[in-house]
């Protein structure tokens, strides 16, 4: 691809990051004009517009789709690409969301905005694994338990943004969330039923802003990492989350991390779960979550290849 290739289509989500996207659009447009002249673009006006815009981009012959937003926007665009059977079309990430967790694993962060845009024209492209949860593709994580309580709490705090929002909500919920009982089965026949504070099944390493939830996760090994944090008292929870922030929590006896190509998670009654920051209601009393190896071609900024 040359820098002047018109087959680059950019989807802007100005509502991402509680309006941060709208503030960052002018800078991204300036950088795109400089490094990717001839690109086409469109702006989402409401939730769900991503599907129509991906279809429009593909119909127009786009070979790279760049998405400005956060984990939710990126995940939706990736899912639509893969459902269309177009894993050959590259996805580029323009960070403007609240957490941008997936971007941290591949070096797509706002502080490197120019490198991120330059990579669309001349940077490396690398095939990566994605996850799939009951048919819906995801890039970063599926979360159950405490994770949902934090997302719900964050919606009540309109002032805070970014990593500070997640940390503040997490601190409050350490004293409030009661826990959830889950049964986890892996692809090798292992099964365990425990009371959980939280279960994160991760494709990449970061979660909740700055937490290194799955420090050994790889985007190219064909496996997912199931991170189980067992239920415990609030002060023990605080100690565990300090370790999660540093990525050293696997040494705790209340934490287990297992890797597998596929997991099945069962619960006593239907509950809600989050997938790349978006909340869904489970349609039954179990979820099947699996890795889809080498499914997506990702634009990777220079010197920060996907792990």
Overview of the structural elements:
The protein is built from 8 helices and 15 strands. It folds into 2 domains: 8-129 and 295-300, 3-Layer(aba) Sandwich (Rossmann fold), CATH 3.40.50.10330; 138-293, Sandwich (Tumour Suppressor Smad4), CATH 2.60.200.40. The model has no long low-confidence stretch (mean pLDDT 89). The strands form 2 sheets. Strands 5, 6, 7, 8, 9, 10, 11, 12, 13, 14 and 15 form an 11-stranded antiparallel β-sheet that branches. With 307 residues, the chain is of the alpha+beta class. The protein starts with 7 loop residues before the first strand and ends in a 7-residue tail after the last strand. Helix 1 packs across helix 5 (113-122), helix 2 (49-59) crosses helix 3 (71-83) and helix 6 (146-154) packs across helix 7. The longest helix has 20 residues, at 16-35.
Please tag this protein with its features.
307 residues, alpha+beta, Rossmann fold, Tumour Suppressor Smad4, 2 domains, eleven-stranded antiparallel sheet
How many DSSP H or I helices? 8
Shape: globular
Largest sheet: 11 strands, antiparallel
Integer average pLDDT: 89
Name of the level-1 CATH class of the largest domain: Mainly Beta
Total number of beta strands = 15
Oligomer: single chain
Proportion of residues in extended strands = 25-35%
Domain count, please report it.
2
Secondary structure class reads alpha+beta
